[in-house]
Amino acid sequence: MISLIYAGSTSACFELDHASPYYAPAAYTVYLNGEEKQTGNSNVFSLFALQPDTEYTVAVKQEEGMEEITFRTACEACALDVRLFGAVGDGEHDDTDAIQAAIHFAPKGARLYFPAGTYLCRPLALRSHLTLEISENAVLLGSADRSQYPILPGLLPDMNGGNNVMIGTFEGLNRTMYQSLIHAEYCEDIVICGRGVVDGNAQNSDFWTEHRHFETARPRLMFFCNCKNVTVHGVTGKNSPSWNLHPFYSENVSFYDLAIEAPKDSPNTDAIDPEACVGVNIIGCRLSVGDDCIAIKSGKIELCRERCQAASDHVIRNCLMAFGHGAVTLGSETACGVKNLTVTRCFFNRTDRGLRIKTRRGRGKDCDITGITFDNIRMENVITPFVVNMWYNCCDPDRFSDYVKCRTPLPVDERTPHLGTFTFRDIDCTGAEAAACYIDGLPEAPIDQVNFSRVRIAFNPDAKPFVPAMQNDAVPRLKMGLYLNNVKKVNIEDVVVQGAEGDILIAENCGQVEAFALREVE
Of the four, 94, 119, 258, 473, which is 20 to 30 A from 503 by CA? Predict the structure, then answer.
């Protein structure tokens, strides 16, 4: 079955209903109005260079036959070529003023078109009701000169006595930051689409080499602050100074069939980090970066006190994630909580951890993470497939304090986080090394429930020791089985662990533990 998941004025995205994670069972051919357009092998594909307000018929020929769907592209007010505003696109001329003029003066509902070329620019500020189409062989190239990036404040007082105004942020706090390359604040109805590239150019700047010495937070590739109805479709993002795509306190944000690339050793280049957002779709994306591929966040406790908004109603589906510290991560900045997350039909390849939840004492009582489901996932050469860590010790001044690392129960108070129910089902993992799973709750606030169903973990015969979770006094592990500590209820059904050393189930300080059809294979 083929379904339309997005139709803009010049592009559309489709999804095939196959059970296989990310990849279709076999290659297929796509036809547009009877004309062969492309072949594909993934469950999500897109078409570009369409005409606005036009009806099309798309047919997909697969082994089992041909199926078609009819759809109509969206209307638009007008389409404008950025070169007519003075943009050159030669990679040397600074095109910022021309592009910014086009953004500012284009009518509501306009599409700004970037033809083939390299458009060198400083940070750009978007406005509402606008589409940027970065066409095939077009590159939006960020300046490598840090002095060209304006510094924005973090939190500003309202002179009329109203609520503080959020402007800048990084790692869960309101703080001064460099303006991002593509930057939108308090906007709505924004589309960024096309087969082109948005290149942060950080490899030629000091954003990566001097990142530990900045008092001001580095820019992101794209930042959407307090925005509504944002869609990014098809483009490739690469070489961001820090996080790539960062929606912050935004609603109805969708990322479709795009690619994010950064070297494995690039610092903090998370691919997609929705923070305190409501309604996020991440579908058909290909992510390979130097940190977490996807990190769902909701701020640290100070941000939560300013405005408590849980990250909720997120869907991650048919994505491919490679390298990185974690494939899909929750945290660690989750002080406002995370609710109703589904991750399905994804393929993780060579990430350090697969499905990763991280929090710690100090995130606060509103840090309630529950209703989390991961199913139909394939992992290859993921060092530790499942990590739930309530002892995370990075990115905070008190990371090595007794409060963070004390293993005896502390009083439950306004700083204590809560982890609810987590379900892992229909997941196949090969090439694991450190542990099948590493789940470590707090003694004063045990995790409510962990469910494993129809899961297979096979260890790499040549595995090397590795630390499963980033926490104080961590010990490298090698071919460790299912490790669970401080969990109220554990349900294990139809789980196979192959090649473990020692017990395949280690449950410490756990309440009810039920294991049915838990099998060990040599």
Answer: 473
Q: Convert the pLDDT of each residue in 301-352 to its tens digit.
A: 999 999 999 999 999 999 999 988 999 999 999 999 999 999 999 999 999 9
β-bridge partners, 237: 198, 260
For the stretch 436-488, pLDDT in tens is 999 999 999 999 999 999 999 999 999 999 999 999 999 999 999 999 999 99
Q: What are phi and psi of 101, to 5 degrees?
A: -65, -40
DSSP string, 243-272: -SEEEES-EEEEEES-EEE--TTSTT--SB
1 exposure class (CB count in 10 Å sphere: 0-12, 13-18, 19+): exposed
Could you report how far apart the first and last alpha carbons of the chain are, in Å?
40
Backbone angles phi, psi at 458, to 5 degrees: -120, 130
Sort 403 into a burial class: Cβ within 10 Å, 0-12 / 13-18 / 19+. exposed
Torsion, Cα of 365, 223, 173, 302 (10° steps): -40
CB of 328 closer than 8 Å to CB of 31: no
Q: Global pTM?
A: 0.97
The answer to whether position 95 is within a domain reads no
Give the separation between CA 334 and CA 423, rounded to whole angstroms.
19
In this structure, the strands spanning 197-199 and 177-178 are unpaired
Q: What is the CATH number of the domain that holds 17?
A: 2.60.40.10
Residue 231 tokens read as: 């869609």
Domain count, the chain: 1
Instruction: Give me the phi and psi of 265, to 5 degrees please.
Output: -100, 10
Q: Give catalytic residue positions.
A: 291, 325
- Tell me if 495 is assigned to some domain: no
| CA nearest neighbour of 444 among 399, 408, 483 | 408
CB 205 within 8 A of CB 181: no
Residues 6 and 12: beta-carbon distance below 8 Å: yes
One-letter amino acid at 421 equals T
**Any domain includes 280:** no
Q: Which domain holds residue 52?
A: 2-72
Residue appearing with tokens 């542990």? 435
Sheet containing strand 2-7, edge to edge, reads: 2-7, 12-16, 44-47
How many Å apart are CA 83 and CA 73, to the nearest integer? 25
Q: Would you report the helix, strand and coil content of the chain in percent, each value rounded to 5? A: 5, 50, 40
Confidence band of 64 (pLDDT split at 50, 70, 90):
confident
Specify the residue for token string 């489709």.
Answer: 14
List the structure tokens of 84.
Answer: 């007519």
* Residue 522 clears pLDDT 80, i.e. is over it: no
**Tokens of residue 42, six digits:** 């993934």
496 φ/ψ sector (left φ>0, alpha ψ -120 to 50, else beta): beta
Taking only the tens place, the pLDDT of each residue in 410-430 is 999 999 999 999 999 999 999
Dump strand ranges (E) for 300-359. 311-317, 320-323, 326-330, 338-349, 353-358
Domain contains 39: yes
